[in-house]
């Protein structure tokens, strides 16, 4: 699965520290913490008809992650909303848009890891693109194909997965393996061998009508993940969070992934095993419909 270039994004204006710059001229300093060590936090946001779904939940996770990394300069919620609004309006965007919101510790006075070298304040990047859910082209009659990566997710005593940071080398290495295997994405296990998530999304399985997903031991507290669990609770769909192994995944009746960039996408095969009967199952179908209804009516209005 390779995303294709959208011609509508050719002349994007990118917001860097409040300045709108054409994508071809958008730059950060080689002394920026993002370049020096991936020292930043980020959120993915999706715009539906001028509204951003779960905006405050995303901005709160950004704040918590930045605080956990001891950032000295964290923008307020209103400051972030204003920069997002300015970016969308400048690009004439209101629907079918994905935003990558990135906050770094900022520029250093000289290269190095020490945060005391950061003396000029934060770097804030708002990158908005015309972008459909990334799995739309991949999810056809066969669903997504996953393989299991050799790369393990960290537990909290190594690096807390609930810090939504920019150092994504684990995910990139897992994606390299998926690409080499001809799979859409990679399943990543925790250090005990239980399913954590994929390189890009959370994983849900359905067993006997019950929706199951991993505990947040080696995966972040995903916002789309929480939304799906909330939909289950609101609509009487049995659900639980627990450890489960690859054997449970292989033998699941249904499987789907969740994430802001990909929404809900059904999985047809994992490691060569067909999931269920190889079609999108009824529970997955229902949750996709409920999620679509929710995003069509909820969200914080940013642009008209």
Any descriptors?
304 residues; 16 strands; D-amino Acid Aminotransferase, Chain A, domain 2; D-amino Acid Aminotransferase, Chain A, domain 1; 2 domains; 7 helices; alpha+beta; 9-stranded mixed beta sheet
In short:
26% of the residues lie in helices and 26% in strands. The chain is of the alpha+beta class and 304 residues long.
Can you lay out the helices and strands and say which pair or pack?
Elements lengths: L12 E4 L2 E4 L10 H5 L2 E9 L2 E2 L2 H14 L8 H15 L5 E8 L18 E8 L13 E5 L20 H13 L3 E5 L5 E4 L3 E6 L2 E4 L9 H12 L4 E3 L4 H5 L3 E6 L3 E8 L2 E2 L7 H16 L2 E2 L3
Parallel strand pairs: 7-8, 7-14, 11-12
Antiparallel strand pairs: 1-2, 1-6, 3-4, 3-5, 4-16, 5-6, 8-9, 10-11, 10-13, 13-14, 14-15
Question: Explain this structure to me?
Answer:
By secondary structure, this protein is of the alpha+beta class. It folds into two domains: 7-130, D-amino Acid Aminotransferase, Chain A, domain 1 (2-Layer Sandwich); 144-297, D-amino Acid Aminotransferase, subunit A, domain 2 (D-amino Acid Aminotransferase, Chain A, domain 2), CATH 3.20.10. The chain is 26% helix and 26% strand. The protein has seven helices and 16 strands. It has helices spanning 33-37, 55-68, 77-91, 169-181, 223-234, 246-250, 282-297; strands spanning 13-16, 19-22, 40-48, 51-52, 97-104, 123-130, 144-148, 185-189, 195-198, 202-207, 210-213, 239-241, 254-259, 263-270, 273-274, 300-301. The strands form two sheets. Strands 7, 8, 9, 10, 11, 12, 13, 14 and 15 form a nine-stranded mixed beta sheet that branches. It has a seven-stranded antiparallel beta sheet with strand order 2-1-6-5-3-4-16. The protein is globular. The mean pLDDT is 96.
């Amino acid at each position: 699965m390779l995303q294709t270039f959208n011609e509508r994004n050719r002349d994007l204006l990118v917001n860097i520290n409040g300045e709108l710059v054409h994508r071809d001229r958008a730059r950060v300093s080689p002394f920026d913490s993002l370049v020096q060590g991936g020292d930043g936090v980020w959120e993915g946001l999706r715009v539906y008809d001028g509204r951003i779904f779960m905006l405050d939940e995303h901005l709160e996770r950004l704040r918590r992650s930045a605080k956990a990394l001891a950032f000295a300069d964290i923008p307020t919620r209103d400051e972030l909303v204003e920069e997002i609004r300015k970016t969308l309006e400048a690009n004439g965007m209101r629907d079918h848009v994905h935003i990558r919101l990135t906050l770094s510790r900022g520029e250093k006075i000289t290269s190095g890891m020490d945060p005391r070298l950061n003396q000029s304040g934060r770097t804030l990047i708002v990158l908005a693109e015309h972008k459909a859910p990334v799995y739309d082209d991949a999810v056809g009659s066969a669903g997504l194909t996953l393989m299991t990566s050799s790369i393990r997710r960290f537990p909290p005593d190594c690096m807390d997965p609930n810090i939504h940071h920019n150092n994504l080398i684990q995910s990139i290495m897992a994606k390299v393996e998926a690409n080499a295997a001809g799979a859409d994405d990679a399943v990543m296990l925790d250090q005990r061998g239980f399913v954590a998530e994929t390189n890009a999304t959370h994983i849900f399985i359905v067993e006997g009508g019950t929706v199951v997903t991993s505990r947040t031991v080696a995966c972040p507290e995903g916002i789309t993940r929480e939304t799906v669990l909330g939909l289950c609770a609101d609509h009487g769909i049995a659900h639980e969070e627990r450890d489960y192994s690859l054997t449970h995944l292989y033998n699941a009746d249904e499987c789907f992934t969740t994430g802001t960039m990909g929404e809900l996408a059904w999985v047809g095969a994992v490691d060569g095993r067909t999931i269920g009967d190889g079609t999108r199952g009824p529970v997955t179908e229902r949750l996709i419909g409920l999620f679509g209804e929710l995003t069509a009516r909820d969200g914080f209005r940013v642009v008209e």
